[in-house]
Design goal:
heterodimer; A: alpha/beta; Rossmann fold; 6-stranded mixed β-sheet; 10 helices; 37% helix; globular; B: mainly alpha; two-stranded antiparallel sheet; 13 helices; L-phenylalanine transmembrane transporter activity (chain A); BCA_ABC_TP_C (chain A)
């Protein structure tokens, strides 16, 4: 494992002796001649909540797509719990422990809330196709356990009573929460949230903050989120990386970021005089 | 507060469904024996059964997987020819009880192999492109069957002359046992993790992948299964009609099956069953109005598509247990309220 300059890592003290959840070394991607992300060095602790912020078009979602292997990086390496993720595809990345939500909600809209979570639990069940066709005991057992787990996961967000509703008919905020539940169902070690608070009102947002902390504490996983709501980012993130034009321009605690001149410049522009 | 299975317990549901099916078989069989249903009508009922299998199997690829294959008649043709050649070869040596299921299985398996071969490249494409490539495949099958009459010296398919004197082994009973099995298998798969994976691909492929679902595998699985059941339907058809003519498995046949699926509602099994029934029976019963029957048929399609674009049933699926759930609860809670408080 490559050694990092201590100023480059954001690991909280409690995660220092564990191998990081994810470690990006010089990650970069070009689309044709355009460099979308470059020299992305980033380490995330095993139980850390971190934020990735930056102006529109800075490459935040591209970073998520690199982490989840939607795109293969042009340069650099990415280690997941110390394991190189080279040549993995999205499915394998999920099985290796990365789960995500999407900026524009991607639920299975015509299916029920319960089915959405059960699809997340797909790899937690292991019965064979024949077992499903002949309805063998293994099928019933696995389905019953999965159903129970799905309802347990839904109850984190108090959504268990919506289990039979069609996912597409839920209110916007509930759809965002369901996406998080579905991602959690895949039993990840790293959860990526792409603008989880988008379209939520302040009370929903503060509830979401509570829930993100609760998820981290219960499941002991690391969470990386992209968010424009600075109250949420500054409120729950232990470490923040700021991205502009595909490059990390600052890393640090919320306090450090708030007073960083480069960050202020990226968001508000240069001072006139 | 985990909800158990509502209403009727599982074994009872199976018993009710199986019981109703047996009743249906017995009633139609005895009516045929008593000549209430004429041989002609019985033939139509068998054709309905075959078309139900075709529609339900195409629905697996169209309604549940969300792809648009236009070569379903190709798979049917492959299955029909494979099983017809097999049946002609073994009809004298093997007892019917053995050769018939084997013939169906061979028809299905050969079609499934073709489904696999065509599915691997085709499923890398989406939408229109997949439609075109499967359409091409269907035409290739038809043209090959039309032009090749001997395979490495063996006269097997007889080209344009058609494959004649196939043993007419398909009966009403076989057809509907197959219908039942096909519907049950598809239903059982849909209610499993495999079926949910297939549905998730229809709903949102990117999200399915990020949920750890191997989309290539499940696409291929659904496609191959769809081809398998089409092959079974083809086998039944071969034993039903007794002569196979390649021109019958053209593009129009694929479209005919697709129309059944779309009319019934993509993603609804009962929709496929109903529309396969109606669209098979209607042209037959309209024979008296010979000149107008295709007009009526087309008008029906236009009217349904205008007033119910999602098909007759949408994605709704009929469930007898859901229908009987309420009366059952009343019945059981009246006796002893065992699970009444559960829900």
């Amino acid at each position: 494992m490559a050694k990092h300059d201590p100023h480059e890592t954001l690991l909280p003290d409690r995660d220092m002796d564990k191998s990081p959840a994810i470690e990006c070394i010089g990650l970069g991607i070009d689309f044709g001649g355009l460099t979308a992300v470059d020299d992305f060095n980033f380490t995330l602790g095993r139980t850390e909540i971190a934020g990735l912020i930056g102006p529109n078009g800075a490459g935040k979602t591209t970073v998520f797509n690199l982490l989840t292997k939607v795109y293969q990086p042009t340069r650099g390496r990415m280690l997941l719990e110390g394991r190189d993720t080279k040549n993995m595809n999205t499915t394998q990345a999920n099985r290796a422990g990365i789960a995500r939500t999407f900026q524009n909600i991607r639920l299975f809209k015509d299916l029920t809330v319960l089915d959405n979570v059960l699809i997340g639990l797909h790899n937690e069940m292991d019965y064979h196709l024949a077992s499903a066709i002949f309805r063998l005991p293994g099928y019933w057992r696995a389905e019953k356990i999965a159903r129970g787990r799905a309802l347990d996961l839904l109850s984190i967000f108090d959504m268990a009573d919506m289990a039979d509703n069609q996912a597409g008919s839920l209110p916007y905020g509930a759809q965002r929460r369901l996406e998080i539940v579905r991602a959690l169902a895949t039993n990840p070690t790293l959860l990526l949230l792409d603008e989880p608070a988008a379209g939520m009102n302040p009370s929903e947002t503060s509830e979401l903050m509570e829930n993100i902390r609760k998820i981290r504490d219960t499941f002991q996983i690391s969470i990386l989120l992209i968010e424009h709501d600075m109250n949420l980012v500054m409120g729950i993130c232990e470490g923040i990386a700021v991205l502009n034009y595909g490059k990390i321009i600052a890393k640090g605690t919320p306090e450090e970021i708030k007073s960083d001149p480069d960050v202020i410049e990226a968001y508000l522009g240069k001072k006139g005089h | 507060m985990i909800k158990g299975y509502k209403g009727i317990p599982m074994p009872v549901r199976y018993l009710i469904n199986a019981g109703l099916f047996v009743v249906f078989l017995v009633v139609v069989s005895s009516l045929t024996d008593a000549k209430v249903i004429s041989t002609y009508n019985n033939k139509i009922i068998m054709l309905i059964g075959i078309n139900i299998i075709l529609a339900v199997s195409l629905n697996l690829a169209t309604g549940y997987l969300g792809q648009l294959p236009l070569g379903h008649a190709g798979f049917m043709a492959v299955g029909a020819y494979a099983s017809a050649i097999f049946m002609k070869a073994v009809i004298k040596t093997l007892p019917l009880g053995l050769s018939l299921p084997l013939g169906l299985l061979i028809g299905g398996l050969v079609a499934a192999v073709f489904g696999f071969i065509i599915g691997i490249p085709a499923l890398r494409l989406k939408g229109d492109y997949l439609a075109i490539i499967t359409l091409g495949f269907g035409e290739i099958i038809r043209v090959i069957l039309l032009n090749i009459d001997s395979v490495i010296g063996f006269k097997l398919t007889y080209g344009a002359a058609g494959l004649k004197s196939i043993p007419k082994t398909t009966t009403f009973l076989d057809t509907f046992i197959c219908v039942f099995l096909v519907c049950f298998v598809i239903h059982a798969i849909l209610k499993s993790r495999h079926g949910r994976a297939v549905l998730s691909i229809r709903e949102n492929e990117i999200a399915a992948e990020s949920c750890g679902i191997n989309t290539t595998y499940y696409k291929t699985m659904a496609f191959v299964m769809s081809a398998f059941f089409a092959g079974v339907a083809g086998s039944l058809y071969a034993g039903y009609i007794g002569i196979l003519d390649p021109t019958g498995f053209g593009f129009m046949k694929s479209i005919e099956i697709l129309v059944m699926v779309v009319l019934g509602g993509m993603g609804s099994m009962i929709g496929s069953v109903i529309s396969a029934t109606v669209l098979t029976a209607l042209p037959e019963f309209l024979r008296e109005f010979d000149a107008y029957r295709m007009v009526v048929y087309s008008l029906l399609l236009v009217v349904v598509m205008i007033f119910k674009p999602t098909g007759l049933m949408g994605t709704y699926d009929f469930s007898l247990s859901r229908l009987l759930g309420k009366p059952w609860e009343r019945l059981t809670s009246g006796g002893k309220s065992k699970k009444a408080g559960d829900r």
